[in-house]
Amino acid sequence: MPDLDIAEVARRAEVPASTLRYYEEKGLIAPTGRRGLRRQYDPAVLERLALIAIGRSAGFSLDEIARMFAPDGRPRIEPRTLLDKADELDRTIRELAVLRDSLRHTAACPAPSHMECPTFRRMLEDVVSGALAVPGRRARRGFSRS
Fold it and tell me: 5 by DSSP, 3-state: which?
């Protein structure tokens, strides 16, 4: 299969060409050459971009993802790294479920306002104390409201 032009890679991977250039700067991908001014990539770059997308979706930084590739470019991921990330995702899922359930309860709560709803007040206190993480903010300690 012939090399792919940067525009074709961007289209197939559903990322802007600027992302491809950034990934190249970070050492995550490499072009095989150029045709005129346009970068060319081996078709295998699409699989590598899929691995990067999975890593990003799982919450890995680009630097962490870069370390997951051996010098020959093949994936080299330590099982412990994957298990630790899976545990972190489990915590996030639990925290988001608490947040979701609290919001649903508050929406149906008979209290005159959400600020008077005991469940909403607990959730608010948990966010203030750092016991409950919300997007854009990190929890300071474990949380497990059952």
Answer: strand
